Amino acid sequence: MRLHRLDITAFGPFGGAQSVDFDALSAAGLFLLHGPTGAGKTSVLDAVCYALYGSVPGARQGGQGIHLRSDHAEPGTRTEVRLELTVAGRRLEITRQPPWERPKKRGTGTTLDKAQTWLREYDSVRGTWKDLSRSHNEIGEEITQLLGMSREQFCQVVLLPQGDFARFLRADAEARGKLLGRLFDTQRFADVEKRLAERRRTTEARVREGDTALLADAHRMQQAAGDAMELPDLAPGDPGLAVAVLAAAAVARSTARERLTVAHCGLTAAESAHTRAQEELAGARELARLQHRFSEAQERAARLAERAGEYEETRARMERGRKAETVAPALELREDAENAHRRAARAEENARRSLPADQADSGAPGLAAAARRTAEELGGLASARRAEHRLTELLAERAGLDREERADEDAARETDAWLDGWEPARAALQTRIDSAQEAASRAEALAARRDPAQRRLDAARRRDRLTSEVAAAERQALDSGQRAHDLRGRWLDLKEQRLTGIAAELAAHLTDGAPCAVCGATEHPAPARKDAGHVDREAEQHAFDEHQEAERGHAAHKQRGAELQAALDAVTAEVGDTPADRIAAEVTELEREFEQARRDASALHAAHEELRRAEAEREQRLQARQQSAVRAAARLTRRDTLDREQGILEAELTRARGTAESVAARAAQLERLAAVLTEAADAARTAEEAAVRLKDADARLADAAYRAGFDTPGAAAGALLDPATHRALQHRLDERQSEESAVRAVLAEPETVAASRQAPADLAAAGERAAGAERRLREAASARDQAARRTTELDRLSARAEEGARRLAPLREEYDRVARLAALAAGTSADNERRMRLESYVLAARLEQVAAAATARLRLMSAGRYTLVHSDDRSGRGRSGLGLHVVDAWTGRERDTATLSGGETFFASLALALGLADVVTDEAGGVRLDTLFIDEGFGSLDDQTLDEVLDVLDSLRERDRSVGIVSHVGDLRRRIHAQLEVVKDRTGSSLRRRGT
Length: 996
Hints:
Elements: E1 2-11, E2 14-21, H1 22-25, E3 30-34, H2 41-53, E4 80-87, E5 90-97, E6 100-103, E7 110-113, E8 116-123, E9 128-133, H3 136-147, H4 151-157, H5 162-170, H6 173-184, H7 187-225, H8 241-306, H9 308-324, H10 328-353, H11 364-379, H12 382-420, H13 422-500, H14 502-507, H15 537-575, H16 580-601, H17 604-657, H18 663-707, H19 713-719, H20 723-748, H21 750-756, H22 763-826, H23 838-861, E10 866-871, E11 883-888, E12 893-896, H24 902-923, E13 931-935, H25 943-955, E14 962-966, H26 970-975, E15 979-983, E16 990-994
Parallel strand pairs: 3-14, 3-15, 13-14
Antiparallel strand pairs: 1-2, 1-4, 4-5, 5-8, 6-7, 8-9, 10-11, 11-12, 15-16
Helix pairs in contact: 5-24, 6-23, 7-8, 7-22, 8-20, 8-21, 8-22, 9-19, 9-20, 10-18, 11-18, 12-17, 13-15, 13-16, 13-17, 23-24
């Protein structure tokens, strides 16, 4: 990479346009960039970095490029950096413009323009530049790919900041690791460490989870086994946990099986004892039962002997009852005949009370004949009933015709009256419709005027409000402008005073033996002193901040005033100078007219509907009048027909009624008479038949009583037993016989007789022995069941624990393997003797390469005295791998780089920077760096060492390479003829080239 030309406009301290011809400066191979402190030497390097990467190094980058603009630039001048360079055989031109807050082209205030970037390439064949891209991202990727370096690497390799490498020499391993990590991009190795640590944590969590489940099963087994199992004193994740749990489970299963065998034996013995006790209890109970049975049979035999007389009396009564049962049918027959005769006599008496006087003494045949004659007369009235019903229907129909005629006459009169007023009503409705339509048209016209009138009123009110706001904004802008002008003058005065006394401010930080920040000397014989009224950096910065804040406030006030004036002009152009009150009155009158027209127009639909309903009603009334005329003609014809039929029916009914009021009344009289005659005839016949049957029953009863051995029918009836009494007496006899048989059978049983001769049975003692045996049996069975459940539960839990251990074994192997790798990569493993992390190991290899490349130049700068060597020893309790020592050839000792003096630190850091540049260049793909910059530090060297350092730098010019030294050391101005001087004043810095 070779730089050709750099153009700077309004960038950093450079208020105007400045150019740097690197081709002219590089002709001598070594050139000097110098100038007073704060003039802008570093800003030239910032411009190169900004052109390539769109940002500047370190803390100077901020605000997306807005703070890169020079405070000395004119408001209309845009900040721009243009760099022309050759890289990878291609000549390119990069132009970058950061965001710019420029004055508006119209009105007052400012507007923000976006950042812009151009990339062009020179076509040597055509001799012209061609555009490649205007995209920030595309240009950034293209430059990074061509250079092979990030911005941080470029700042370390090409710009060579000596202060950073001096700190690098004195830094600990952690700080060196951070810097080398940024330069060599070892993040992937750190990611490997992180990934291994994450995998270790993940697998450890899974192993702990599996161990936790295994311990949970172990706790369940301990609960099931009781005191037969002891848990291992291990936590989840501890080695050997699974083996210890399985071993404890095996011991618990063996103990449980032994206890189960003992429980089985105890249950067998308890069952045998229980069986013997039950047999003994059953024998005692049987003996007691037989003895009780014998004594009870003796008592029952004694009771039977006492009731022998009662038994004989009951048996005699049962015998007389059996004889009376042969007379019972005759008794029942005679009772039924007597009851039937009484009922028939009462029915006949009741029936004869309703007979006419001429039939009161007639017999059954005469009453039947009279009933037949009455029925025949009733049958002859059927035709008269139909005629009477038809006459009723006819009269109802005639009344309906009269009502219909009266209704039609009333409707006709009402219709005629309504039709007479039709034309005036229709004309009135049409007038209402016309008026509503006219009001609707007027409302539409007024509605079209409402919105413009309201907008005009709003604009007038906004015009009045903006007029007062514009006046207030102009007053604020004038006040803030005057304040900003006063504060700017105060800041410039303070800045001038501080620059006058800057030497005293710098001298305040000098210490004996430490190099001067300006000249690099370590001796300070006459440092400057602060005088009365000295202005320090804080006072100047405070004044500058106040000035900047006032400028921003003034710009904001001007911007607001311009915006308000533009809004006022737009509103005034729209509404003119008409007062807002007049416009408001016009709007109010317009709204009133619109509301009135809208109310009038709202009646249009109702008027249309009313006219439509009136026309429909007229048609309905005309049709109804025609239908009424048709019905009147039909009624006249129907009346004639009904009159003729009515005359015929009335003649027929007169003949059929006789003396009754109506045919129905006559028929009701005949029906009642026929029913009375028929009922009386039937009752008379029934009474005669019942008397005959009663006489026959008396004869049969007397004969049956004589044959059964009774003197009279009454004696037979007295001996007759009712069913309940018969069953009760028979039951007593049967119970007597059954009891005698049962007592004889019991007293004849051999085992009962034998039991009665033995001693009384002792049931209490036998029961107690049986209860004790049963209790011991239950206890043994419970112990056996508990042992069986414990054994089954332990077998189940052991199987689950073994399965969990089998599943956990591969995971634990994976965890052990990953944990070893993670500890090894993190430097915490015992196998990693130097406690070196993986990233540190890679960086150590890079640092070893850097130390070797730096040593080649350090020997030349130190006349062969010093050599940089990499050390992987641990420092204190920290980790090893990034140690850097210097070997002193004069003493033969190796010591830490932090022990070097100021001058030695400078050329050691310079050698380290050059070596790092070589290694990073090789890492970036071997891109040739034809232009290098070295920043500060030469003031700490004596003349001889400075000559040696310059010789080394001069050797860098081999193969057409140029080196720029950034320094304000006066001796370098005499030694290096090609110079680029940065000159500063109150209007901004400028560049001046010398010796080319």
